[in-house]
Amino acid sequence: MTNQYNKIFNKFKGNSEELIPILQNVQEELGYLSEESMASIAKFLRIPKSKVFGVATFYAQFRFKPKGKNHIMLCRGTACHVKGAPRILEEIENNLGIKEGETSADLEYSIESVACIGACSLAPCITVNEKVHADLTPQKIENLFKKKN
Ligand code: FES
Q1: In sequence order, what are the residues at sequence separation of 6 or more whose Cβ sits closer than 8 angstroms to the Cβ of residue 52?
Q2: Which protein residues touch ligand 1 with a CB less than 6 Å away?
Q3: pLDDT grade, residue 136 (50/70/90)?
Q4: Which phi-psi region, left, alpha or beta, contains residue 26 (left: φ > 0; alpha: ψ -120 to 50)?
């Protein structure tokens, strides 16, 4: 089997200390860490698969499912929180039938939360594929996503 990760592995020496940068590179390339990619990394670094899984799951920056076609980033910063971000998240989850950190089975939607999306004066806000939706209310969320589940 030609290893699709060789292009990435070629940039590294194969030392186990390179695990995190390799995980980052693979995620950048694939958009997430598949089981197969983590198994290949383990082989390349000659470390147990369980070590790769253990390290990857420890860090919030890594995802284990592909992003949806519509990737929603919900701001959980202070300004947004105070102005009702938890209620907004609940509404999104209800409409899409998935939880934060998940991707819908049809790969249409995924939800992630981030520390701040830099539009605090427009709180509460989310981005959908980088486009900012500001000053949100549950009603606006419903109009945006209508019932998808
Ligand atoms: S706190 Fe939400 S955009 Fe900054």
Answers
A1: 19, 23, 38, 39, 41, 42, 45
A2: 75, 77-80, 116-120, 123, 125
A3: very high
A4: alpha
Q: Which two tokens stand for residue 10?
A: 């070629």
**Calpha distance 101→112 (Å, rounded):** 5
Instruction: Say how far apart CA 124 and CA 138 lie, in whole Å.
Output: 11
Distance CA 89, CA 95 (A): 10
How many Å separate Cα 13 from the centre of its chain?
28
What is the topology classification, in CATH, of domain 70-145?
Answer: Glutaredoxin (3.40.30)
Question: Hunting for tokens 């383990």 — which residue is that?
Answer: 42
Measure 111 CA to ligand 1 centroid, in angstroms: 16
Express each pLDDT in 84-115 by its tens digit.
Answer: 999 999 999 999 999 998 999 999 999 999 99
Q: Where are the domains of the chain?
A: 6-58, 70-145
Q: Is residue 80 within 8 Å of 124, Cβ to Cβ?
A: yes
Q: What's the 82 CA to ligand 1 centre distance in angstroms?
A: 10
